[in-house]
Specification:
Elements: E1 2-7, H1 11-22, E2 28-32, H2 40-43, H3 55-58, H4 75-88, E3 93-95, E4 97-104, E5 108-114, E6 121-132, E7 155-157, E8 171-175, H5 179-190, E9 194-198, E10 205-206, H6 215-220, H7 224-240, H8 242-246, H9 249-266, H10 270-275, E11 288-289, H11 293-298, E12 302-305, E13 309-313, E14 316-319, E15 324-325, E16 329-332, E17 347-348, H12 355-358, E18 377-379, H13 393-408, H14 417-431, H15 435-438, E19 446-447, E20 452-453, H16 461-476
Parallel strand pairs: 1-2, 1-6, 2-3, 4-17, 6-18, 7-16, 8-9, 8-16, 9-12, 10-11
Antiparallel strand pairs: 4-5, 5-6, 13-14, 14-15, 19-20
Helix pairs in contact: 1-13, 13-16
Length: 487
């Protein structure tokens, strides 16, 4: 029997393993369905994939890395960073081992299978505690498109990129203008592809100001004090952005002006500029960073269709506005199953209910980490644990430290239905007047089943840290409130 099973070897899983090791816990099994670490940064290999959080803030606080090549790290560098940590720290990871089923029976019984899909059963693990570090952006969302089967070219999601895809001289249709598309489209155009871009809703885009670090800068950042100072500055800048993303009128107006000026500088055509102008509040959708998307769209290489792709008619792409377009390949940059997490159907709690059923009206939790009816289970990066203004790794590290501390203390980690209802109400109340809920757009932060904000934490990192400390206090001393409920 293992004390702890960690599911996943992306940022969350590595953070959990490190926190457990730091707490003195040695009886840990990390399972990973794929053949390597990295999570999102292992799966996404499309041209141009990179982080939109500064490199020196996106890494783990315990493992600064002076060798980042750019202000915003390319995806392959981030994966390499996590691989180095796993190797250097001696984290024991069982690769090719997928979660098939986890259920509570006076402890956790975790069934595993081989390969990404958990094909052949590989055995059961018994554990006192389970940490779900499965990631929130793992299962591509494939839109229902009538006639899709009539398209005779390659069809792929941006998160399942085929490096062998021939781009030069090909007409490539891209569906979506979110975070992946704004990185991908300029690279397709630069590779000689002709791009037809289906845009359902334009995004707010601000300058990225990315650049390569000089050798001198990298040498200076090898000094731990210099690296810590840079991280502290980036942390403060990120926290300051919360105001503009969450609906502070003055901060939002200032940020919106920056975005509009950026669009005006890079797109001269008034009609195209109008098509690229959002009609919802700043921050309602994820604010994107790019210096090359607008120039690419304004070039002859990209044909913007300001309409969603509605279907395919005998191989021809038909937009919602009725226009018809031909393409040699179809790329779906359509996001992920974020509000309904795929792993949830595999986890059954003490009352015989799956996590998916428990979350039938949207994800709920206590402290964005614990769930009623699922003892000694910690969910990292799950309900209300994403951030819209700074590095989500900061929250993952807080959750990992929280879990490791309670496990090290031998706490029986349970929360009541009342505590979960109270925390859910708190999230609803804190988010009710934010752009994420009331900003006039559809986004992946809000669960359509309930209309609740279920992905984002509606506060700063500092506020999350303080809130999680209150949860830890109540878990440790449940007698202070009725049945352990939060005050």
């Amino acid at each position: 029997m293992s004390r702890v099973v960690v599911v996943g070897a992306g940022f969350a899983g590595i953070a959990a393993a490190l926190a457990l090791k730091a707490s003195g816990e040695r009886d840990v099994v990390v399972i990973e369905r794929s053949d390597g670490v990295g999570g999102t940064w292992r799966d996404n290999v499309y041209p141009g994939v990179a982080c939109d959080v500064p490199s020196h803030l996106y890494g783990l606080s315990t493992h600064p890395w002076p060798g980042w090549s750019r202000v915003f790290a390319p995806g392959e560098e981030i994966r390499g960073y996590l691989e180095r940590i796993a190797h250097d720290e001696g984290i024991d990871i069982r690769f090719g081992t997928a979660l098939i089923d986890a259920r509570w029976d006076d402890g956790w019984i975790v069934r595993t299978g081989s390969g990404d899909q958990g094909g052949r059963a590989t055995g059961d693990l018994r554990a006192d505690h389970v940490i779900l570090a499965c990631g929130r952006l793992t299962e591509p969302r494939i839109p229902e498109l009538p006639g899709l089967e009539t398209f005779d070219g390659p069809i792929l999601h941006s998160a399942r990129w085929d490096p062998s895809l021939d781009l030069a001289g090909r007409r490539i249709a891209v569906v979506g203008t979110g975070a992946s598309a704004v990185q991908l489209v300029p690279r397709l155009a630069a590779a000689g592809a002709e791009v037809v871009l289906f845009q359902r809703t334009p995004a707010w885009i601000v300058p990225k100001d990315d650049r390569a670090y000089t050798p001198q800068e990298r040498a200076e950042l090898a000094d731990p004090l210099a690296a810590a100072a840079l991280r502290a500055r980036l942390h403060d800048e990120g926290e300051a952005r919360f105001a503009s993303r969450s609906g502070d009128p003055g901060a939002a107006a200032e940020a919106e002006a920056v975005a509009r000026a950026h669009l005006a500088r890079q797109v001269a055509d008034p009609a195209l500029r109008a098509a690229l102008s959002p009609g919802y509040e700043f921050g309602c959708k994820r604010v994107l960073l790019s210096d090359d998307f607008y120039p690419a769209v304004a070039s002859d290489a990209v044909d913007l269709v300001p309409s969603a792709l509605a279907g395919i008619d005998d191989g021809v792409l038909v937009a919602a506005d009725g226009s018809r377009h031909r393409a040699d390949a179809l790329v779906l940059a359509t996001g992920f199953a974020s509000t309904r997490q795929p792993y949830a159907r595999l986890v059954t709690g003490e009352h015989g209910t799956t996590l998916d059923a428990h979350w039938a009206d949207g994800m709920t939790s206590v402290g964005s980490t614990l769930v009623h009816g699922f003892p000694n289970l910690f969910v990292l990066g799950g309900p209300n644990a994403a951030l819209g203004h700074t590095s989500a790794v900061l929250v993952l590290e807080e959750q990992a430290a929280f879990a490791a501390a309670l496990i090290a203390e031998g706490a029986d980690v349970r929360v009541t239905a009342e505590a979960e209802a109270a925390y859910t109400h708190e999230i609803v109340d804190r988010s009710a007047r934010t752009p994420w809920v009331a900003g006039g757009c559809d986004n992946w932060y809000v669960d359509s089943r309930s209309g609740r904000l279920t992905l984002l934490w509606p506060g700063t990192v500092a506020a999350f840290r303080e809130r999680l400390a209150l949860v830890a206090h109540d878990v440790r001393r449940p007698s202070l409130t009725p049945e352990g409920a939060l005050p």
